[in-house]
Write a structure and sequence with these properties.
445 residues; mainly alpha; 76% helix; transmembrane helix; membrane; Na:dicarbo_symporter_sf; transmembrane
Amino acid sequence: MSTTSESLPRRTWRRYRSIPIIYRIAVAFVLGTAVGGLVGERAGVLEPLGDLFLRLLEMLIVPLIVFTLLGGMRKLTPSRLGKVGGLTVALYAVTTTIAAAIGLAVANLFDPGTAVEFVGGEAQEAEPPTVAEVVLGIVPENPLAAMVDGDILSTIFFVVVFGLALSMVREATTDETVADAIDGFFAFVDAGTEALFKIVWGVMEYGVIGVFALMAASIGTEGLGAIVQLGALVAVIAVGIVIHMSVTYLGVMTVGILGESPLSFLAGAKDAMVTAFTIRSSSGTLPVTIADADENLRIDESVYGFGLPLGATINMDGAAIRQAVTAVFAANLVGVTLGLGEQVLVLATVILISIGTAGVPGAGLIMLSVILTALGLPLEIVGFVAGVDPILGRIATTNNVTGDLAVASVVGKWTDGIDLSSGVWADVPDEPAGEGGGEGVAAGD
């Protein structure tokens, strides 16, 4: 084989990787949607390729939480942990409350559901968690079992406690053997984190194929009929989410607090946003969200290592808007007007159940069944709106992930844990890593 023919595949691969991965994934999304619409149910044969992408992301969730949290704990004194943790949780609570209020506002303004024929459907009842159940559920009976089961809140709790204990022992010990052992352990954590980031971007390279397969199979089997029929519901929820992202995240948080361009923030968060829209899972997107925070937004690990895994579980702003609008939609379907008391109940219920709701596809339907039960509305409505759950889940999850990064950026600003002179914030972006710029997410920006 000649030298010229041997170099052609390499040149082609280099040119391919020189295209920012976000654009490659976007093209895969569009092509997959087109193929699914043209081929129909036969596109379902591609589903295993998409499922492999989801599994690869799920494989990374718990290891990334453990390593990034432990790495963050090394940089946190107990007092700083209290400040970072307190600010993060407070901001999540505030933004979720604002999101639910926006959802109710746009729902009352546009009044979706008044002209839609209710055809019924099947649903499964779900009981709302009590405050005691939420609090007790955070503390794991068996930390290893919590990690194996993917119990994110319990895993976060144990890793934070363990990491903080290591930091306190390191700070107080006079035994050099103990100090060296802890330093060695944290060095191992740092190495493991770097290795995991390498795996993340390898998975994202495959994600071009995975996203194509997911969209082709999804559109091919589910079609667009339900989206057309329930277009009003989708449109109102989309309006609420656009308002929340534009005003709360980009306006108040990015411009007002960070003092930066919203375009810079979007450039740093776009990889996670596209991934969230594709796979409909805040938890599944977590590896990409963490990488965006670290490489693009330049947030310190002591901030994002705590805030992002927590946000993937409890920060459900998009779900709050979605459930608030759907509650009004459901009431209109059956001719019931929600008074002020019922709407306050919706607001409180959304905030409470968002804490214990898994950041995975389909969780929104369980949230909706809880709200309908609280309002005394027929649960069959869950089955009616399930047809548009894929698109509602996508836009809600995109909002959730964007909110996680916005909160982490603000907390970083308030705790000196973000570098606003580099990454996407800089006038001249850093050189992308890797040959041809394909290694880093922001390659070519």
